[in-house]
Design brief:
Largest sheet: none
Shape: globular
Strand content: under 5%
Helix content: over 70%
Order of helices and strands: HHHHHHHHHH
């Protein structure tokens, strides 16, 4: 990368940071817009998690409004990706999974389905989500089920962060950073539990259907 291109990237990053600061000054409405932008594929410096914590620690009464706004913004942004992938189909998905990591994440979605949406969506650890959302859209996941899974993942996450931010204030982010491995272990454990639960429920449903026919 040349010096001019590096300078250009720095300028874009600085402009984006200024935009985030402006939107954040709008309170929950700004968090909503930032959530849409971030979830639609343009990562926001610090992430929506940090913004919810910041609003909650500075304006405690607005914390839960910010959590609701973040949930709605995340839903809208991810729906944009989902619908784009739905329209583009597998050819569109293939262009985003050319590298080995992308192919691996797609294979995980094909194996584990919407669990790959729920776990990264609910756990407060930076985990990949975009490829799973694109896979859900391109590979024909039901829209209603996708929305439901995303909502039950994002809402607890953001409302927990709002609650934590309102109580720990400026110490919230250091607290989360200090316990990142615990959150990661929770993510792995949650995935294993849900995976076997879904398999058990599917197996039982199939046998019940066979018994009734």
């Amino acid at each position: 990368m040349t010096k001019s291109s590096c300078w250009r990237c720095w300028e874009i990053g600085a402009q984006l940071s200024k935009l985030v600061a402006l939107l954040l000054s709008w309170g929950p409405l700004g968090v909503l817009l930032i959530g849409v932008i971030d979830s639609a594929g343009l990562p926001i410096p610090g992430g929506v998690d940090a913004l919810v914590v910041l609003v909650s620690s500075v304006h405690r009464r607005q914390g839960y409004l910010a959590a609701a706004a973040a949930t709605a913004g995340s839903l809208v942004g991810n729906l944009i990706l989902f619908l784009i992938a739905r329209k583009g189909g597998e050819a569109y998905l293939a262009r985003h999974t050319l590298h080995a990591r992308g192919r691996k994440l797609r294979a995980w979605f094909e194996e584990y389905g919407l669990l790959t949406i729920f776990v990264p969506g609910v756990v407060i650890v930076p985990l990949p989500l975009k490829i799973f959302v694109l896979s859900a859209g391109a590979l024909g996941a039901k829209l209603g089920r996708f929305i439901f899974v995303l909502l039950i993942a994002r809402a607890p996450r953001y409302f927990f962060l709002a609650w934590l931010g309102s109580r720990l204030g400026k110490d919230t982010l250091p607290y989360l950073a200090h316990h990142v491995w615990e959150f990661l272990a929770f993510a792995v454990l949650l995935f294993i539990i849900l995976y076997f639960f879904v398999r058990y429920a599917h197996h039982r449903h199939r046998h019940l259907f066979i018994d009734l026919t």
